Structure prediction request, 660 residues.
Amino acid sequence: MKLSSNLAIQTENLGKKYKLKNSESWALKHINLNIETGSALGIIGPNGAGKSTLLKILSGLTKPTTGSYKYRGSLTSLLEVGTGFHPDLSGIENIYLSAALNGMSRKIIRKKVDQIIDFSGISLEYINQPIKHYSSGMKVRLGFAVAANIDADILIVDEVLAVGDVSFQEKCMQSMESQMHEQGRTVLFVSHNLYTLQKLCPQAILLYQSEMTQLGNSKDVCESYINQTLDRNDNIKLEKREDRGGSGKIRINKLEWTPTLLQTGKEATLTIGYQAKERLEDMNIKISINGSDGRFLTPLSMHSSNFRPESMPANGELTVKIKNIPWMKGTYFIDIRVIEKGMVCDDLRKASKFQVHGGTFIEGGDEFNSTKNGVFIPHVWNI
Amino acid sequence: MNKKIHSVSSSDSIWKFSKEGFRRTKQVTLAFARRDLQLRYIQTRLGWFWSIGQPLLAAILVLVVFSWIVKIEAPYGFDYSIYAFASLPAWLLSQHIIMQGSPSLVNNQHIISKVAFPRQSLPLSKAIVASVDYMVATILYFLFRGIQTGIWDFYLISFLFYSFITILASLGIAYWIAAISIRFRDWLAILPLLIQGLFLLSPIVYPTEKYSNALGKYEWILYLNPFVAICDGFRWTWMGINNWSELHYISFLMIIILYLSGITAIRYTEDKMVDTL
Prediction:
């Protein structure tokens, strides 16, 4: 068996076919990958694109229909936190069980068990209790602690980091990052959290409809992914939308963000295109940014930022630059209203939808994780 | 960089064995066995008492039903209890492996779909747990026979051999049902019936010589049951009863066939398991 010395994993024409009731479908096709030892590769793609299938094949859960792959050293996949945990067994017994299932020998577990308990932060009076008496947070922490201390040359991680409380997640990320850098471990990482993925993996691949459509710098790959998933047709739709209010004298026909990958704290520009029959005077555009629950969050208006051009061309574009995106990770909607000489000319609700992909608002701070939409404001803490 | 290179291909045969695979089987089997032993101690109020209680209760039942009610008599003038109990520990061992091993894949499907490990580890781990009980039952029988008859001899090699083939045969059956039940759960529903049938058809509580009463020259059909060899083997080990005939070869052969075909079945389904479950 040959595998050039700098590679950790090499796949050749990997494919997987599933037989459905009356038909067949390819869940994965033509995957050719060379992953270098010590690198971290992110895997992105919409649901059903074949991400899990690829992970299942590489972790040995299922056999490929076509092709083959080679890997160097030991390989462990973490597709779940706390695999094999049994509610009636104590914390320590569960550590031994789960770690053994994930490929650790008893000797190594014995050596690492204190470290794992320490990492989980579970007190000694609890660690000998059956885990059915644990809170769900404690169970997750124990599972993470086992996962973070797994000893393998190649680690395959599936979104497991997406659960648990934030500070603990951060701890796991750090532990994973340091293991990668110090021990030359190779990591494959699948996640919908593009921010985490970019932070951990310099390179990424994009899977789309069972095939690998892009391999490269993870920032680029993330951007093409967003372009793909966000309604690409939003702008076309915008022109054709008829559920508008106002007189109809002016029509908004374009709402577009650059860059496409929006991150909290980063710069972004919103381009607004409009169309009318004649030159416009005393025009005002009012935009509301609403959260995914429809809650009003942020106003953006020409007049309120004291931008009052006297006359505007009949067709044109305006841009709004936001230096630091203040919105937290999540989905947002734009409502837009155009007013000329005090008359509402166009009024579009939910004109566009966009996604902010996490990040830090204040340089060097932690990412503030919440499932709710919210707005950051600049502020300073003092002692 | 002299770490081992592993390779997986769509054309791999199910018979691809590796040292790594063997190590992993051992590791996971022991982990599951340990889990089951720990759970037994935690979940049942009487814990380890059942290792003693279960064979005792089974023995009393056999004695009451087959000696007192049905009045079966042991051949060659042996005491019935010593005759029937000789193969009872082996039967309990087998019953345990089949009962626990067969549904073990379906019962652990959440683990199976998340972690890759050789699937035969699960039924195999049940065999380890069952073997612990088997040791206890065997010691009980050894003491019982000693006290009743004053015979304290013990043929270790013969004992180990027949214990081993008991485990092989039961694992073969458990592998088969475990593999099939991934697709067809109904096999688990008829499992109790299957075990009952096996118990009644095996010469555990009655002598093998009774077989000839039933089918005459088609007697050999009954020797397709692996338990004929096992039961007579244990009576030979414990009591020196020598009733071997050519027909017993069928029974021995069946044990080998069962085990080999069983492990083939489970390895065959292994690659498809995650997709089917």
In short: Chain A has two domains: 7-229, 234-356.
